[in-house]
Amino acid sequence: MKPAAWFDRRGWSDIIIGVPYAWAIVFILVPIVIVSALSFAVPVLNSPPYAFAQSWPYVSTGSFHRLFADSIYVRSFGVSLFNAGVATVLCLLIGYPMALGLTRVSKAANRVLLMLIVLPFWTSFLLRVYAWIGLMGTTSWFNRLLTSLYNVLVPQAWHVPHIQIMYTNFAVIFVVVYSYLPFMILPLYANLEKLDRTLDEAAMDLGSRPWQVFVDVTLPLSMPGIIAGGLLVFIPAAGELVIPGLVGNMADPMIGAIISEEFGLNHDWPMAASISVALLVVLVVPLMAYTRFQSRAEAGARG
Amino acid sequence: MKRLSPFLLTMMVLGYLYLYAPIISLIVFSFNKSRLVTVWGGFSTTWYFKLFENTQILDAAWLSLRLALISATVATILGTMAGIALVRFGPFRGRTLLSGLITTPLVMPEVLTGVSTLMLFLLMAKWIGWPARRGFSTLLIAHITFSMTYVTTVITSRLSTIDVSIEEAALDLGSPPWQVLRDITLPVISPAILSGWLLAFTISLDDVVITSFTNGPGYNTLPMLVWAKVRLGVTPDINALGSLIVGVVAIGVTLSSIVITRQERRREKEIQAALAGEQ
What we know:
The complex is a heterodimer. Chain A is built from 13 helices and 2 strands. Chain A is mainly alpha-helical. Chain A has a domain at 74-254: MetI-like fold (Orthogonal Bundle). In chain A, β1 (42-43) and β2 (50-51) form a beta hairpin. In chain A, α7 runs antiparallel to α10. The model of chain A is unreliable at 1-5 (pLDDT under 50). Chain B is mainly alpha-helical. Chain B has a domain at 58-233: MetI-like (MetI-like fold), CATH 1.10.3720. Chain B is 79% helix and 0% strand. Chain B is built from 12 helices and no strands. Chain B has helices at residues 6-30, 46-53, 55-88, 95-107, 110-128, 136-159, 165-172, 177-188, 190-206, 209-214, 222-232, 236-278. In chain B, α1 crosses α12 (236-278), α3 crosses α11 and α4 packs across α6 (136-159). The longest helix of chain B has 43 residues, at 236-278. Classes of the chains: A mainly alpha, B mainly alpha. Chains A and B meet through α1, α3, α4, α5 and α7 of A and α1, α3, α4, α5 and α6 of B.
């Protein structure tokens, strides 16, 4: 098959490639190169506050050593990955039945319900977090509802006047799940919608019970949707800066706050850079490897 | 009709409650007379009037709007160019790098984009003397950069579903490439260009993290102002602001979906009419 090239490569068609390319190099590639390079520098009291060693090998791995030596960094990495992991699992547990339900309603209902999933995207993210701050506060109807539910369920000795939700790790996970739930539902729905329903019927005809059909047919076939949704939730959740800053426990920060603090408050650019590189390696490199593997598998399946 | 099991129905009801309870609560309490945000003290519209008297909020909204309009427009031009280059120009040198660079900001946590872009600006100021201070121009560059990647994704996914044979037919019939681009490719992907622009516009309007790294003193966008206010505590005028945004968005989305449905119906009718004519 001939490549879909219908443009001569001369003259102004170079502009169509060149302009966005130049922009992407200067404002996407160069910043990443700068961060990678600075992660091997040492902090100095100067402007800009970094320096490279004057003799061979010119680089220092001091920041990376501190990254593993100082428990603050290790701990905040742990908190970030834990929060993101729990949030991803919760998004999946809530989002999967919703996505499955969306494939089983009438066309008119489906249209409205899908729009209701997307609608929050178009409103302000910050204001949705803000709305939860109001609800999680100790005087709100939501908190009072939860408190009375809790008090009904537990013995009298454990009764509390209100539940402290704000400024806890639980609040961070709760709001992260809320904010990223649509990112889980939409790819899952796109995947589930394409599945061949006759497979379900065939399994039922052969005597499978509905939950068996789900475990043996639907679940394995929806794996690509689960992974896509999972990555869309996990990566931004792990690097989340706004939500923990507003509802989280300041004493136990996530990694995004640490990067921002090292850079803005401590002016330790090399430290901020090496944490960034570490975060990039932990989050983005597995993703890139996965997409490569995926596209190769697809090419293999086709060829 | 397909059946919805009681379990799925329950989960959907609970899920939608989870998604909408805070938004509905926000709207209800924006009409609250009391200063306390979550305790009802009677109906009033004071907070809406207070909002329109607050010049700080109005200035921030105006800045956000200008920023979003300009950055979305530039990002749409750049993103459309990149999308056409990636899908229609065949294999060219550095194609893999370009598509990799476009995906990077999409998969990177925002805080990394923010820190790295700010480092670039600070080093540029040191090396070439520009930008001397951060403000509208640095915000604009940062917003164009991340918006561009979203636009490119929208354009490439649309363009790769469109058959290239019409364009090739026009070329075979002797149209110069720029005419093919102007008369066929761009009109065909115009819905994608429009939705790319809308996406870029709303993302720019909503961005907090990257803006917080790249803005300078005196350049508070609306989300930055809201962030600063929320950190100091919850106030009812923010409820009013949130409700206004939700209202505008709901009306906009409903109207556009009505328009799109009508267009789809008309197109279906035209296709049917054309098919009937052929027979």
